[in-house]
Design goal:
By secondary structure, the protein is an all-beta fold. It is 0% helix and 39% strand.
Length: 400
């Protein structure tokens, strides 16, 4: 493990902030960080307690909810989008989209008549939709991309050939809305004009399951994919390549540092501005226990909180990469697909058994409660005193 000087750590708030703010699009992990600092949700719930509302949905999905204004949006297999009332969970509309209805791709080339296969756990709706409060953008594992208004009317659709994206094992990288562009990562990274669906640029990139994230470098926006590729959002220029390819999860940006964490992960500092050459610096490498890491970490108060599939939870120092705490979570059979979420001062760690452990944060996190609903693979999202969780059977609003 590399132990550099800790002097760089004071720069965390000075460059490359994650894109956040009151008007930030809401999609994968909210604004992409998994942090909901103003949330005050309950830490305990059950099918009989602290359920504000529950709306059963006829089709399952792994996609997390996206909140826009007074509405909340979720998906259903293999290409359905639901719009619900945020206050009461009333189903307002359902839109069923058919990928095979589009027979040419965004470049006008013929597409295969059949959509690709997907593993049972992944399906076609693992990507989380994203909304800017005016429109909703969805990406499906079939390669179908759709833009809808918040009443469910389709504004435009496109399709990308996804037949080789993950060797028939499915797709889960969520779309990213930034600077008027919708960024999707299937067999390459493609930017579409959010208004029209027109392709703006395409940058070659190996397919990955993890979702891309965006941040600022100086006065420009960059997107970072799960390969560790850094691309300029304005034109798709590849600034850095394959910094630390991730097998299953995606990158996390905190300050000027990109964390690519799995068994054999790295922290890489981005430069203060985009110059030639684009100079990145590997600050440290780390090796938490050997396992698959589906969950994307969260970063808070100088610590990274990481979970593997088994599940085992680790706490890693942001400054050094040292694994300072490890604990096996007794959550039964299954896997921890859900990414980490930090709401207020509590850490939420989910498992596809239907269980979720709530921790107080710290160098040795303290478990507060273990809660259970029906099975889920999505990540919870939060607003105010409520948590929203998409299970395989329903959408839950949890609060007091």
């Amino acid at each position: 493990m590399i132990h550099p000087s800790r002097a760089w750590f004071v720069l965390l708030s000075l460059a490359c902030p994650a894109l956040a703010g009151a008007d930030t699009p809401f999609g994968w992990r909210g604004n992409g960080t998994g942090l909901f600092p103003d949330a005050t949700p309950p830490v305990t719930w059950s099918p009989e307690s602290n359920i504000v509302w529950k709306t059963a949905l006829p089709k399952w999905s792994n996609a997390s909810p996206a909140i826009g204004g007074d509405r909340i949006f979720v998906c259903g297999e293999p290409g359905t989008v639901y719009g619900l009332s945020l206050a009461g969970g009333k189903l307002l509309w359902q839109r069923d989209l058919d990928a095979t209805a589009i027979n040419t791709d965004i470049d006008g080339k013929p597409l295969p008549a059949e959509i690709p296969k997907a593993e049972a756990d992944c399906g076609f709706t693992s990507p989380t939709p994203v909304t800017d409060g005016r429109r909703l953008f969805t990406l499906f594992g079939s390669g179908l991309i759709a833009c809808l208004d918040l009443d469910g009317h389709v504004l435009w659709t496109r399709r990308i050939d996804a037949s080789t994206s993950r060797e028939d094992r499915g797709h889960s990288a969520s779309p990213l809305l930034v600077d008027g562009k919708l960024i999707v990562h299937l067999n390459s990274v493609i930017a579409l004009d959010a208004e029209t669906g027109r392709k703006v640029w395409e940058t070659p990139a190996a397919p990955r399951w993890g979702s891309p994230v965006a941040c600022r470098v100086g006065d420009e926006t960059v997107v970072i994919d799960a390969n560790g590729n850094v691309m300029r959002v304005a034109d798709g220029k590849l600034l850095a390549a394959n910094l630390c390819p991730l097998d299953y999860n995606g990158p996390l940006v905190a300050g000027p540092v990109v964390y690519l964490i799995q068994h054999g992960g790295k922290a890489i500092r981005l430069p203060e501005r985009i110059d030639e050459p684009f100079a990145t610096e590997t600050l440290w490498s780390t090796q938490p226990k050997d396992d698959r890491y589906y969950a994307v970490p969260v970063a808070a108060d100088g610590l990274l909180y990481v979970a593997s599939q088994r599940p085992q939870m680790h706490v890693i120092e942001q400054a050094t990469g040292s694994v300072i705490w490890t604990n096996r979570l007794a959550l039964g059979d299954g896997r921890a697909y859900s990414s980490m979420a930090l709401a207020g001062k509590y850490l939420y760690v989910g498992h596809d058994s239907g269980k979720m452990v709530v921790f107080e944060t710290g160098r040795e996190p303290k478990p507060v409660a273990t809660n259970r609903l029906d099975k889920f693979r999505s990540t919870p999202v939060f607003r105010g005193a409520r948590m929203y969780l998409r299970t395989l059977e329903a959408l839950y609003c949890i609060g007091q």
